[in-house]
Amino acid sequence: MIFSDIGNQKITLKLVTLFLLLSVGTIIGCIGSLQTTTPQPETDEATSAAEMETPTALAELQLSTPKTNYATKEAIPLELNIQNGKFDLLVPFFSVATKGAFTQITVNDANGQMVKPKHPITQENPQKYVQSDGKTVRCIQGFELKASENQELKLKDIQRYYLLQPGTYTVTLTIELEVYKASITEEHPEIRELKQDMARIQNDPNLQGAAKQDALSYYQEQIKFIQERHKDAVKDIYLPVKSLRGKTSLTSNSITVTVEPETEPPVGLNQIRPFRKANRHLKQIRPLRETNRRVEPETEPPAEQTQDETPSAFEDFASVVAPKFKNKANPKYPTNAQARDTPSEN
């Protein structure tokens, strides 16, 4: 009996120990599964948050205008400041250095309705084939936007593209900025010709090793000389189309612009203005007339006379004295003259 009880106790202890081990393993497995699955959403949220913050960290757009109130036909200029982040960017020239930066302007009226443009703001982005390492590469003109630098642009008058009637408007700007990972600097034409000659010499089987090396050394010295001579010249950079890294959307702040209605002039001013204009024209014409003809001096009109003071015609004739002859001669006419003066009986 004793041995059987001891055996039963041993079996019971083994079962209890096994049960405890299984329980501990289950609890550890659950904790481990919680530890592996719980941080995953945080990683996804951090990744999505980083992706959302990328455009803001890449560059910022600041839109402004010199004033907020404008007359109906007054020019409304816009000023854009592109504040770059902490990375050097290779971007298209037309999107950050020309009016192409303003192609995606949004204008809303006071009711939130979008104003359609008279004609859109457009800017060409031509492609060009550039020689690089003996190959022809299809490129666009590029711009190197340095880290932490500002790029300023101006649009002279938004009313050239949008007909803004009197009212209040909200203006916002968006730029779809492309970023490239490689650039090519177009070489000087003389350097391109020298490199072409070097390639022909390199592939010429008739030249021996020493002669070929001397010719190549001479061309290399010429290339260095040309590079040194034009080192201060401004060189355009080009972005290979195939080196596009990605695109990001940048949105500016919103600004408010008010177009005031035209004010009518006070009563009577419309009549005075044409009179002033006529006087200005007369002042310009009078000197010409005075040079061509003599202007008689103006005389004052005679003072008005009463009816009693006006002299009578009979009084004038009464005061006239008949003339008297001092000597009177009777002329003698020739016979022929007298015959001509005498009327005929027929």
Brief sketch in words of this structure:
The chain is built from eight helices and 13 strands.
Which key features would you list for this structure?
five-stranded antiparallel β-sheet; 346 residues; elongated; Immunoglobulin-like
Question: What do you see in this structure?
Answer:
- The chain is α+β, with helices and mostly antiparallel strands.
- Among the domains are: 55-186 and 235-259, Sandwich (Immunoglobulin-like), CATH 2.60.40.2970; 188-233.
- It contains 8 helices and 13 strands.
- It has helices at residues 2-37, 39-58, 93-97, 189-202, 209-229, 269-292, 313-318, 335-341, and strands spanning 59-64, 69-70, 78-84, 89-92, 105-108, 127-132, 135-145, 150-155, 167-180, 184-185, 237-240, 244-251, 255-259.
- Strands 2, 5, 9, 12 and 13 form a 5-stranded mixed beta sheet that branches.
- Strand 6 and strand 7 (135-145) form a beta hairpin.
- Helix 4 runs antiparallel to helix 5.
- The longest helix is centred in the first third of the chain and has 36 residues, at 2-37.
- The protein is elongated.
- Mean pLDDT is 74; it is low at 1-11 and 27-56.
